[in-house]
Design goal:
The complex is a heterodimer. Chain A is mainly alpha-helical. Chain A has 15 helices and no strands. Chain B has two domains: about 400 residues, no CATH class; about 60 residues, Dna Ligase, domain 1 (2-Layer Sandwich). The chains are: A mainly alpha, B alpha+beta.
Chain lengths: ~325, ~475
């Protein structure tokens, strides 16, 4: 397959998953802002959202103070923000248009109609579009595309590149969502274990569509250790770091088998899986949750870099 | 109707009766209830959008994906009419290729005084970089699109030749596909020759001109300027139908004596490039140094026989509007035959006496820019105001060599669906002739229709639409 085609497929998946992540972050932001914060009002929670989505600098340059309404439009509609839901869906659809013939019509339909909806919504008065509806809409589009891919795409290399994109972006996203928690709580270590703390953790789980699953799997009190175990180390959790990295690794291995040759990408992915498989929650907390997550986000970016040079850049030999 | 209006040849109704090729459509449109017709029309549009048959227009605001209006009323030729057209088109494609081989070789036609040397050698489209090079099988133009108009039962004229990268063939194929889906009955009742093997023929044609150095099954690729190009859909459609890679310049590189394609499994050699970009952009080392669309070093590989480029760089000199006038001479000179299809009489404004005639008769003529395309920069005398004509006259006087003029042809009409029902609208025709080891032509082409009442301009940028084109089987 043409390297550029593989690159387009990979970015379709990454962009759709990014759109979903930003929607999930918006959900965390709206919920966190519903309860009174003990320091500086809404500012802290929303700052954390901007930080976690990596858009803080861009937002500050355009708007200055983090006013919730501005943050919402910056994260959802703003095409100047490359990570906004609108930018991500537009990018996914444009990548799809380029490789239209590598996609089934079901996948193209799902991407194209998301884009057409988006065009309509951009023309609609903002007050008629409650944020909760926009978040639900984004999740639905993302799942439609994902479902169409799973149901209809041929299981050839293109399918692997789509899935590698999904899993990599998802690993990054889960790590970032968890990191929000760090930013919110950082100045108030005293509140760990308090009612407020639990509320915020629950919100994170809710944003991962996982709070019921969590209760089912662990029961009882929500503790940081249980959450970290669930979202980082538990193979049953569909968005946990280990599930995502294993997914990426499995699709890289499929590629290597199909092509009859292995690259650095496979070894790098396996090393990451290995590290997570052997880690314990205690190790992570010893390192510091924020430190661990930052390192993990960097590792994922590194794996993305190796995949790019091994397959997508066209420099493969 | 105004008494001064010229009378046009209606391809369906001849006096009181229905002409034979159209007999299968007699009553078809009139019997269709308006609701059904509207339903079918929106169904067709939905299909076009769904499949993604759009041409992209960026930078004008609005939805960049536009649809070319599709008119459901087919345009029909009898097998006899087609036989004559086909023979004429093949003849022309042979002569144009012979001309190209000649002018990049010994230049016999110029030496014989049949075509003025400056029109060839000082032509912008003349490519010095390929002088003396003989492409595989001596073919320069592998896909020849011939634009034809009709003015009477047996009167066909060639409006222009397209020897570089004629577009629109995807519409020919998709229009048929959509008609068959919407009106299967019509295809059961009428014996309509199929066009669907065009992609297979194109692939075979391209493979047949692979360079001698090619080993095994030739790897063919379509080179596109990219997804912002208005014809990107066609490029990806053809690549998909032929089962070949669709590449951009950045996907290719030159190493050693060959061109390679960047894939996820490492470099793969490319033998034949069907390029859909202009000469000026294919190799920044040879042509425009600022081009990001092409492949550095491609021309060196081409000239050393490592890759075939279709159509060959330099093919454009044969379809220049100034050269067009001489195509009948080419047919006589190279093939020793008399032309089957006529040219439209053309006045060259570069010649003072012809220019004077043109300026005196602007109100009756169509004036075009020599290098223009897309229906822009032209004057349709009979449809223009005195002021417009006066303004255009000034432009001609400023740069006479830039213009040619032709009589306003009474383009034939074909019934078409319009707001009020069915009415005649002017049409033209572009068949696609493939030249490789053999010359191939599918029975059909792209019919463009001027949907605005009275309009003679069929270009999609000027309110034109397209129709399915039928050739009745023998």
């Amino acid at each position: 397959m043409l390297s550029r085609t593989a690159d387009n497929l990979y970015w379709i998946a990454r962009s759709m998953e990014r759109a979903e992540t930003v929607a999930r972050l918006l959900e965390v932001g709206s919920r966190n802002a519903l309860i009174p914060s003990l320091s500086g009002g809404y500012r802290n929670e929303w700052d954390a959202i901007l930080q976690a989505s990596g858009t803080q600098a861009g937002f500050a340059a355009k708007y200055g103070d983090p006013v919730p309404r501005n943050i919402e439009s910056y994260l959802f509609f703003d095409l100047d923000n490359p990570s906004s839901v609108a930018s991500s869906i537009t990018r996914a659809r444009e990548n799809a248009r380029i490789v239209r013939t590598a996609l089934t019509s079901a996948v193209w339909d799902a991407l194209n109609s998301a884009y057409q909806d988006l065009l309509r919504m951009r023309r609609t008065e903002r007050s008629k579009l409650p944020m909760s509806d926009l978040i639900d809409w984004t999740m639905r589009q993302s799942m439609m595309v994902r479902g169409a891919i799973e149901d209809t795409q041929l299981r050839i290399d293109g399918y692997d590149f789509l899935n590698i994109g999904y899993h990599l972006e998802r690993a990054d996203s889960t790590a970032r969502l968890m990191d929000v928690k760090y930013f919110v709580l950082l100045p108030q270590v005293d509140y760990v274990g308090s009612g407020l703390d639990n509320y915020q953790w629950r919100t994170i789980l809710r944003a991962m569509s996982a709070h019921r699953a969590f209760s089912w799997a662990y029961g009882g009190e929500i503790t940081p250790a249980k959450i970290a175990d669930f979202l980082i180390l538990n193979r049953k959790a569909p968005r946990s770091l280990i599930t995502s990295v294993e997914g990426a690794s499995a699709h890289l291995d499929r590629l290597a088998r199909g092509y009859g040759r292995s690259t650095n990408a496979q070894s790098k992915a396996r090393a990451l899986v290995g590290e997570l498989a052997e880690a314990s929650v205690e190790d992570i907390f010893d390192e510091g949750l924020h430190e661990f997550l930052s390192r993990f986000i960097a590792e994922i970016a590194g794996l993305g870099g190796v995949i790019h040079s091994s397959y997508l850049s066209g420099d493969a030999r | 109707m105004d008494g001064d209006e010229p009378s046009y040849f209606n391809e369906m109704f001849d006096g009181d009766g229905v002409r034979a090729p159209y007999s299968g459509l007699d009553g078809w449109a009139n019997d269709m209830p308006p609701e059904l017709r509207n339903l079918k029309q929106s169904e067709a549009e939905a299909l076009f959008r769904r499949i993604g048959i759009t041409f992209a227009v960026y930078g004008e605001g609005g939805d960049p994906d536009r649809l070319i209006p599709f008119d459901m009323f087919p345009r029909v030729f009898s097998s006899g009419e087609w036989r004559k057209l086909e023979a004429g088109i093949r003849q022309r494609a042979r002569a144009l290729n012979a001309f190209l081989m000649d002018v990049y070789g010994r230049g016999e036609i110029v030496k014989a005084g049949r075509i003025p040397a400056h029109l060839v050698y000082r032509n912008e489209a003349f490519e010095k970089a390929v002088v003396g090079f003989k492409p595989p099988r001596g073919v320069y133009s592998h896909i020849v699109g011939i634009d034809l108009v009709r003015t009477g039962p047996d009167e066909f004229f060639v409006l222009e030749d397209n020897c570089r990268t004629p577009s629109g063939v995807s519409y020919m194929l998709e229009n048929r596909e959509i008609m068959m889906r919407m009106f299967p009955g019509l295809f059961q009742e009428n014996r309509i020759a199929p066009v669907e093997n065009y992609p297979a023929l194109l692939r075979r044609t391209l493979a047949s001109v692979a360079p001698e150095k090619c080993e095994g099954e030739p790897r063919v690729a379509i080179l596109t300027p990219g997804h912002f190009n208005s014809a990107y859909y066609e490029h990806s459609f053809l690549a998909d139908m032929m089962g070949v890679e669709l590449v951009e310049g950045q996907d290719l590189f030159v190493e050693g004596d060959y061109v390679w394609c960047r894939t996820t499994e490492g470099p793969k050699r490319v033998d034949v490039i069907y390029r859909r970009i202009d000469d000026a952009f294919i190799d920044p080392l040879c042509f425009r140094p600022d081009s990001m669309l092409g492949v550095p070093g491609l021309m060196n590989v081409y000239r050393s026989g490592g890759v075939t480029i279709a159509s060959a760089p330099g093919a454009g000199v044969a379809d220049d509007k100034a050269i067009y006038t001489f195509v009948p001479d080419m047919i006589r000179f190279y093939l020793g035959e008399s032309p089957i299809l006529n040219n439209v009489p053309t006045w060259q404004c570069a010649k003072p006496d012809e220019c004077a005639y043109v300026l005196d008769n602007l109100a009756e003529l169509v004036v075009k820019e020599v290098h223009g395309s897309g229906g822009y920069g032209m004057l349709v005398g009979p449809k223009s105001s005195t002021e417009q004509i006066a303004a255009f006259a000034e432009k001609i006087k400023e740069d006479p060599a830039n213009y040619i003029a032709q009589p306003t042809l009474a383009l034939s009409t074909c019934p078409s669906f319009v707001e009020e029902g069915v009415a005649p609208r002017h049409v033209d025709l572009r068949p696609y002739c493939l030249v490789g080891e053999r010359i191939e032509l599918v029975p059909g082409g792209l019919t463009r229709v001027a949907l605005r009442e009275g309009s003679l301009v069929v270009n999609s940028s000027q309110g034109g639409g397209v129709k399915d084109t039928w050739v009745m089987a023998e």
